[in-house]
Amino acid sequence: MARLIYSAIASLDGYVEDEKGEFGWAAPDEEVHAVVNELERPIGTYLYGRRMYETMAYWETAGLGPGERTVTRDYAELWRATEKIVFSRTLESVTTARTRLERDFDPAAIRRLKAESTRDLTVGGAELAGRALAAGLVDEVHLFLHPISVGGGKPALPRGVRVHLELLAERPFRSGVFHLRYAVRP
Fold first, then answer.
1. Backbone angles phi, psi at 93, to 5 degrees
2. 120-124 vs 4-11, strand pairing mode
3. Which residue of 46, 78, 129, 175 is 20 to 30 Å from 108, comparing CA positions?
4. Distance between CA atoms of 186 and 50, rounded to whole angstroms?
């Protein structure tokens, strides 16, 4: 059975975006981006909410220029090669290849997808991840904590949902970013 992994880049105080909806402070440097690429390499399917999909659709054409960093080109190739499922009731259509639109997030369907998949899945976007965590679907949580406190905004982990985590690995980076990898425990 495939694992469902929630990975988020967050501020040290636990937010994926600040109160203005901005997240420019979360841009990974080359060292962090290379590790993210290695974590993404075995992924077969991305699960996205509308807002995360609209943000990530950038990668459909990014990384193609001759002056792009190697880590950027590598991530763009990984992203384009991976299947994507977007959960949205308001999005009219999808604009990227290998992408399908679903109107409702159905935990039973995700359980079946995990059981049938030979490659791991990720859930992207704090709100959709919160729903997956609440439904007991997430197997691992990866947090890339940046050395900044933004004081509020969208939390990386859902409010009102108790999740027991077991630390599997930790890794500091020269930039002050810290990667924490957790297993979700029942």
1. -160, 170
2. parallel
3. 78
4. 28
Q: Which phi and psi angles does 130 have, rounded to 5°? A: -60, -40
Inter-residue contact 26 to 16 (CB < 8 Å): yes
Residues 86, 129: Cα–Cα separation, whole Å: 13
Model confidence at 166, in pLDDT bands (50, 70, 90)?
very high
CA distance 179 to 149: 16
Contact present, 83 and 44 (Cβ < 8 Å): yes
Q: Which two tokens stand for residue 138?
A: 């997430």
CATH 3.40.430.10 fits 4-185, yes or no: yes
3-state secondary structure of 107: helix
pLDDT of residue 64: 82
Q: What is the pTM of this model?
A: 0.95
Query: Does the structure show a pLDDT above 90 at 63?
Result: no
Query: What does DSSP assign to residue 169?
Result: E
Alpha-carbon span 15 to 154, nearest angstrom = 5
Q: At what angle do helices 30-40 and 70-81 cross, to 10 degrees?
A: 20
Which residue is associated with the tokens 């490659």?
119
Residue-wise pLDDT for 65-117, tens only, equals 888 899 999 999 999 999 999 999 999 999 999 999 999 999 999 999 999 99
